[in-house]
Amino acid sequence: MNYSLRKKNKIVKYIVIHYTGMKNLKLAYKKLSDKNSNVSAHYLISRDGIIYNLLCPKFKAWHAGKSKWRNNTNINEYSIGIELENKGHDFGYSNFSKKQYKLLKKLIIFLKSNFNILDKDIIFHSDIAPNRKSDPGEKFYIDKIGIQRFKIKRIKNNYSIDEMLFLYGFHISYIRKYKIFCIEAVKRSLNYEKINSSQSKKFSKDFSNLLFY
């Protein structure tokens, strides 16, 4: 199992949701447990509804990779990683199971209570590394676990796409360098069936409705 000690001045404030992106649960479990794989996570939830606690959250897992969110870099330092069994885009992406949603909801309630994590800080792998990752993807519906990530007060009538990307949480360097990937990540959060970087009026409206109340 790969892990590191968290730095003393770093506190857990994010939950990062992933999919395994492997052909089956056995391979995913083996990879996440293998010290030679250079990856790990705190929890793994199978399609059949089993939670595997792979690593105590007080330790830093290696699930996020090179990542940024808001003003933070190296999100592993601040986060708990949850992997959901799913073959992913490369091996046959499918809907997540009802049992996965049920157990994920229970796990997140537990983690929110123990680490004082807010709904807005429950984020996706594709959010923190939009140029590299697409999980948990457009078939993951966060409303099924009772989480509302965005409750931003609107202070003006119109926002540019760049402004909304910043309010969404993308690190400013990602917006400047990987804007098209950030847009694709937002479309995954919006559960679009077709994922691309086009900036239509519909997308702008949907994005606005996602962020603001």
Architecture overview:
The N and C termini lie far apart (43 Å). The protein has two domains: 4-145, Peptidoglycan recognition protein-like (Lysozyme-like); 161-211, no CATH class. The protein contains eight helices and nine strands. The protein is globular, with a radius of gyration of 17 Å. The protein has helices at residues 25-33, 88-91, 98-115, 125-128, 161-168, 172-177, 179-189, 201-211; strands at 4-5, 14-19, 43-45, 51-53, 59-60, 68-69, 72-73, 79-84, 122-124. It is 33% helix and 14% strand. Helix 5 packs parallel to helix 8 (201-211). The longest helix has 18 residues, at 98-115. With 213 residues, the chain is of the alpha/beta class.
List the helices and strands and how they pair.
Elements: E1 4-5, E2 14-19, H1 25-33, E3 43-45, E4 51-53, E5 59-60, E6 68-69, E7 72-73, E8 79-84, H2 88-91, H3 98-115, E9 122-124, H4 125-128, H5 161-168, H6 172-177, H7 179-189, H8 201-211
Parallel strand pairs: 2-8, 2-9, 3-8
Antiparallel strand pairs: 1-5, 3-4, 6-7
Helix pairs in contact: 5-8
Please sum up the structure shown:
With 213 residues, the chain is of the alpha/beta class. The chain has helices at 25-33, 88-91, 98-115, 125-128, 161-168, 172-177, 179-189, 201-211; strands at residues 4-5, 14-19, 43-45, 51-53, 59-60, 68-69, 72-73, 79-84, 122-124.
Secondary structural class = alpha/beta
Q: Strand count, sense and closure of the main sheet?
A: 5 strands, mixed
- Helix count, per DSSP? 8
Number of domains: 2
Low-pLDDT ranges = none
Mean pLDDT: 97
Tell me, what's the shape? Answer: globular
Strand order of the largest sheet: 4-3-8-2-9
Give, in order, the helices and strands.
Answer: EEHEEEEEEHHEHHHHH
Assign the CATH topology of the largest domain: Lysozyme-like
DSSP E strands, number: 9
**CATH class membership of the largest domain:** Alpha Beta
Q: Ends: how far apart? A: 43 Å
User: What percent of the residues sit in helical stretches (DSSP H or I)?
Assistant: 25-40%
Assembly type of the chains comes to single chain
